[in-house]
Design a protein that fits this description.
- It catalyses: UDP-N-acetyl-alpha-D-muramoyl-L-alanine + D-glutamate + ATP = UDP-N-acetyl-alpha-D-muramoyl-L-alanyl-D-glutamate + ADP + phosphate + H(+).
- Pathway: Cell wall biogenesis; peptidoglycan biosynthesis.
- It is an enzyme of class 6 (ligase).
- It is globular, with a radius of gyration of 22 Å.
- The chain contains 17 helices and 20 strands.
- The longest helix is centred in the middle third of the chain and has 16 residues.
- It has 3 domains: about 80 residues, NAD(P)-binding Rossmann-like Domain (Rossmann fold), CATH 3.40.50; about 210 residues, UDP-N-acetylmuramoyl-L-alanine:D-glutamate ligase (3-Layer(aba) Sandwich), CATH 3.40.1190.10; about 130 residues, Alpha-Beta Complex (Protein-Tyrosine Phosphatase, Chain A), CATH 3.90.190.20.
- The relative contact order is 0.08.
- By secondary structure, the chain is α/β, with parallel strands linked by helices.
- The mean pLDDT is about 90.
């Protein structure tokens, strides 16, 4: 067996990035994808002369690896992973592999909700402060691709639970855990405790010079923390109680205090990101910035002029007094709860798609208070009808973004908000949540 053969499973952003980095460090690299490889990734592999296969996993090519880097989307139950584990061939994540080849410091952000927004905001503050910083992980570029092609001092990494599951020696200099709510439970034997344990891996291997930032108001986080011995410096954030070191809210002012040095106070009215959940996201980013001793003026300015990502509570248009918001990235119930919580008008809610075993109970109060009608957008909307038939007078079915927007337009009154916040995956009618969001925006612009 060759002692330097790396096999990469999955040829998406993370897989191709890992292959580029492995090739740069002299490994014999082979990439295998069980599905079809997207043209942009295939072209990159061909340009680099990296051997690959698609639409299959050839055992003879894979089971002779020294080490395997797997894409986060491949479950441990996949036959090829089972075969690798049986042969005791190490299987790691791209994040774990990439960290071996950089001395840069890492700020790792995870949580069931808000991690993309918090990662983007943290990156925005650091960049504005003049740090040499890259943004990677579950967002945009893969960490490995950036390590292979760039030279940053800091990385802000958005990290999913699937990435954490295959991280062993990796250590975050600053770890942020925003919240833990039921998501992807099909990968965790439908046990919230298993999923929570996966999220807590963000703090593994941390030492006394490292930082762990967490939400003191999140019950599942506090419960999961009881099983861990922390060595890092810990900073909580809360909107319910005063925090001595960390961040808290007091009569519409956000206070951040680290080491009792130059505390930051900022009115939440000044924040670019509005809504209760975004106060949490801003607090987490603010603590990171204060740990790095970034000036208060820079933090204030960054939090005031930040623009959120596409497909996350994105304002699309105002037509005849009706606001249209694209929140296609809301692929779980909790994200939809946050979206409804942040809208202050009556809502026509467009939701539906591939239901991941959703429990809609947590939405019922907000739906009763705010939602005038639900427009279902999906092939099978039975569970949405069952969940909300007693709470909403109008529930209608549609099977395209165009049809859903037209229906919402007829149902909405002046002063209402039409909110696309599906609470479901998009794969029944769309390529992905971006495709769903883009089709929604096009349909709104055609009104």
């Amino acid at each position: 067996m060759e002692n330097n053969r790396i096999v990469v499973l999955g040829a998406g952003e993370s897989g191709v990035g890992a292959a580029m980095l492995a090739q740069k460090h002299g490994f014999d690299v082979f990439v295998s994808d069980f599905g079809a490889i997207a043209s942009q990734y295939k072209e990159r592999l061909q340009e680099l002369n990296i051997a690959f296969e698609e639409k299959q996993h050839t055992s003879e090519e894979i089971l002779n690896a020294t080490e395997v880097i797997k894409s986060p989307g491949i479950p441990d139950k996949a036959p090829i992973i089972v075969a690798l584990k049986k042969k005791e061939i190490p299987v790691i994540s791209e994040i774990e592999f990439a960290k071996r080849y950089t001395d840069a410091k890492t700020i790792c952000i995870t949580g069931s909700n808000g991690k993309t927004t918090t990662s983007m905001l943290t990156y925005h503050i650091l960049k504005k402060a003049g740090l040499n910083v890259g943004l990677a992980g579950n967002i945009g570029n893969s960490f490995a691709a950036l390590v292979a092609t760039a030279d940053f001092d800091w990385y802000v990494l958005e990290i999913s639970s699937f990435m954490l599951d295959d991280m062993y020696d990796f250590r975050a200099d600053i770890a942020v855990l925003l919240n833990i709510t039921p998501d992807h439970l099909d990968r965790y034997d439908y046990k919230l405790g298993n999923y929570a344990a996966s999220k807590m891996r963000i703090a593994q291997n941390q030492g006394s010079n490292d930082t762990f930032i967490y939400c003191a108001d999140d019950e599942e986080t506090i419960k999961a923390m009881k099983h861990i011995r922390f060595n890092s410096k810990m900073y909580p954030f809360s909107i319910r109680k005063q925090i001595e070191e960390g961040a808290y809210l007091e009569s519409n002012n956000m206070h951040i205090n680290i080491n009792h040095k130059d505390p930051l106070t900022m009115s939440i009215i000044e924040l670019a990101l509005q809504g209760k959940h975004n106060i949490y996201n801003s607090m987490a980013s603010g603590i990171v910035a204060k740990v790095l001793e970034i000036r208060n003026a820079t933090i204030r300015e960054s939090m005031g002029d930040f623009r959120n990502i596409e497909h996350r509570l994105e304002h699309v248009a105002k037509i005849s007094g009706v606001e249209y918001i694209n929140d296609s990235k809301a692929t779980n119930v909790n994200s939809t709860w946050y979206a409804l919580e942040s809208v202050n008008t009556d809502v026509i809610l467009i939701m539906g798609g591939v239901d991941k075993g959703n429990d809609y109970e947590m939405l019922k109060d907000l739906v009763r208070q705010k939602v005038r009608a639900i427009v279902c957008l999906g092939k099978d909307n039975k569970r949405i009808h069952e969940a909300f038939e007693d709470d909403v007078e109008v529930i209608v079915n549609t099977f395209s973004a165009n049809e859903a927007v037209k229906m919402a337009y007829h149902l909405a009154k002046k002063g209402n908000t039409v909110l696309l916040s599906p609470a479901c995956a998009s794969f029944d009618l769309f390529k992905n949540y971006e495709d769903r969001g883009n089709q929604f925006k096009m349909a709104v612009k055609e009104l």
